[in-house]
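Design request, tokens follow.
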């Protein structure tokens, strides 16, 4: 089966040429080498790799910490928003208002904590002491210096009304510190 057809001959020559070309390409190829992509194994850019891992871990732990803090803040806000907590806060506010009213009456009221009703001297305020009238001809309108003291929740509030110097000295001593306030007495009268 001899085939002298020119088309067959060209096809055969082309097939041999492609096979030789493919063979030469294989011959010119480099060796296959294996390299790790992870810098922990290869050592290339290892420090940058470790920093990236550290940053990822820190970012993740910061996010978890912030989430816990946010949840705790929400829980605390919810506890403060209950009817019971509102009632206690309102009660505490009224108690403090009552204490401050008694202190104000004692400091700037008539005759150092005494009040006048219908022209007669009423009982002195419970926060004041040394509230005795001067013995100047039976005149009960002039009172001597007086002092008072209030102790509440570890805070001691002591006041001294010095009529001769025309000042009120307020000493506050508590867990937050100590302070002394000196106020002119007659500046508050109308």
């Amino acid at each position: 089966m001899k085939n002298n057809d020119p088309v067959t001959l060209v096809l055969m020559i082309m097939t041999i040429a492609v096979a030789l070309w493919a063979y030469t390409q294989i011959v010119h190829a480099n060796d296959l080498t294996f390299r790790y992509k992870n810098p922990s194994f290869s050592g290339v850019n290892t420090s940058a790799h470790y920093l990236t891992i550290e940053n990822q871990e820190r970012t993740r732990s910061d996010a978890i910490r912030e989430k816990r803090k946010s949840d705790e803040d929400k829980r605390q806000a919810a506890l403060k928003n209950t009817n019971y907590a509102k009632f206690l806060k309102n009660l505490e506010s009224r108690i403090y208002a009552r204490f401050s009213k008694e202190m104000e009456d004692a400091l700037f009221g008539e005759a150092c904590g005494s009040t006048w009703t219908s022209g007669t001297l009423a009982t002195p305020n419970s926060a004041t002491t040394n509230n005795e009238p001067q013995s100047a001809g039976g005149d009960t309108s002039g009172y001597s210096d007086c002092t008072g003291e209030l102790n509440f929740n570890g805070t001691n509030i002591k006041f001294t009304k010095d009529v001769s110097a025309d000042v009120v000295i307020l000493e506050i001593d508590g867990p937050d510190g100590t302070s002394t306030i000196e106020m002119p007495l007659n500046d508050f009268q109308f």
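Comment from the thread starter after seeing the answer: thanks! Residues 114 and 123 are 6 Å apart (CA to CA).
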